[in-house]
Amino acid sequence: MAPVRIRKRVFVLLLVCLVGASVIIGFDFLRRPPFLTGHIVKDSCSSAFSAVRREPNEPRVSSTVNIVQQQKKDSAGNSPAVDQQPETDSPGIKPPVEVFQTTVSRDDHCTDLMIMGKRHGPIICTLNPKECGMAEAIQRDHNWEGDKVDTAMKVMAKFDRDPLRGHVSLFDAGCNQGVFTITAAYLGYEVLAIDPVKKQLELVATSLRKNNLTSKVTLVRNALSSDHRKVYIPQDITDLADWYDPKANGQPPPDRVVDAVTMDDLIPLVRTERVFLKMDIERSEGRALRGASKFFDEIEVVCIFMEWEWVKRTEDDRRFILKFLTTRGFEAYRQPTDKKPLNAESSMWWPHDVYWQKPN
């Protein structure tokens, strides 16, 4: 009888080990972040390797806009990360508009974002802090221009409280590494964010995925202009006004050539009837507003936060913006809570940033 008992004990022990191993393997599979399941490809902008994966149905977009980051599965059911040609989903779309969905697999430069003075907010992934001053500040202070972000969120909350006039969303023109976009999405707002720099949009998309916020945000990789053209984004993106036509200047790196679109082109992507417009597009504000007449006619812009420091140095843009906005009832303020607007005749000496609002 003894050998029989020994065999039974050995069988039970093996069965227990097999079940335990299955549980461990299953748990490990389930806890893996979804963005680590893609194929590894080398990013053309850096020596880092990226894991790219399209998330189905996110972000939510209008059927009139072209999604260019579409991926197809191979015979094994995997989604290879390869460059895709634009896919037309309906007649009459605006082909230059590029809705961006590519993420990267990285955790080395991610930290929590401070919101309204409180830590442990959403995760934000940045560029290498040793190579980018903004990234260094975010890693150190857990925010970038936090007072301006907080002010924008308070203005949006004020207008969003009126249920009869509809909700407010953020139009983040020049989203950079996504501080405004991620904060607004985390607080529950819909966001349309546009930037021409691929590497920055990859980081924003990754941050949104890590926070499960991709459904709140539509990312667009284009330059804003008054017309359609292909433009070369210079390596120094602090002055996008210096972009040029790549056809007339040899063969620039393809990852730095983007399509310029107008704000009017982006109307189908705005999810609410009212928007808070944040404009920080490095001296291209005048060019963008020259293509925004229909946008302002169809969508209620409740407030515009605009970097004015560079605009005021270009007389044509300064005069155009003043006329474009004042004829639509806007006045400029140092702070959105100020009662007295800035004097238009002294716009050359306005502060670094201004808030455009219609008087109450």
Offer a concise description of the structure.
The chain has 360 residues and is of the alpha/beta class. It is 27% helix and 17% strand.
Commentary on this structure:
Residues 52-95 are annotated as: Disordered. The chain has 360 residues and is α/β, with parallel strands linked by helices. The protein is built from 8 helices and 14 strands. A 7-stranded mixed beta sheet has the order 7-6-5-11-12-14-13. The longest helix is centred in the N-terminal third of the chain and has 30 residues, at 2-31. It is globular. The protein starts with a helix and ends with a strand.
Q: Biggest sheet: strands side by side, in what order?
A: 7-6-5-11-12-14-13
Q: Which spans of ≥5 residues are poorly predicted at pLDDT below 50? A: 27-93
Helix content: 25-40%
The arrangement of helices and strands along the chain is HEEEEHHEHEHEEEEEHHEHEE
* Shape designation: globular
Q: Total strand count, please?
A: 14
Task: Report the major sheet.
Answer: 7 strands, mixed
Q: Using the CA coordinates, give the radius of gyration.
A: 24 Å
Contiguous helical run count: 8
Region (Disordered): 52-95
InterPro entries: FkbM_mtfrase (IPR006342), SAM-dependent_MTase (IPR052514), SAM-dependent_MTases_sf (IPR029063)
Protein name: Methyltransferase FkbM domain-containing protein
Biased composition (Polar residues): 60-88
